[in-house]
Amino acid sequence: MTYLEFEKPLADLEGKAEELRVLARKGEGVDLEKEAAALDKKAEEMLRDLYKQLDPWRKTQVARHPERPHCRDYIAQLFSEYTPLAGDRAFGEDHAVMGGLARFRDAPCIVIGHEKGNDTKTRLAHNFGMARPEGYRKAIRLMDMADRFRLPVISLVDTPGAYPGKGAEERGQSEAIARSTEKCLQIGVPLVSVVIGEGGSGGAVAFATANRIAMLEHSIYSVISPEGCASILWKDAEKMREAAHALKLTAQDLKKLEVVDRIIPEPVGGAQRAPLDAINAVGDAIAEMLAEFEGKKPAEIIKDRRQKFLNMGSKALA
Question: Where is the CoA carboxyltransferase C-terminal domain positioned along the sequence (predicted)?
Answer without folding.
Answer: 38-292
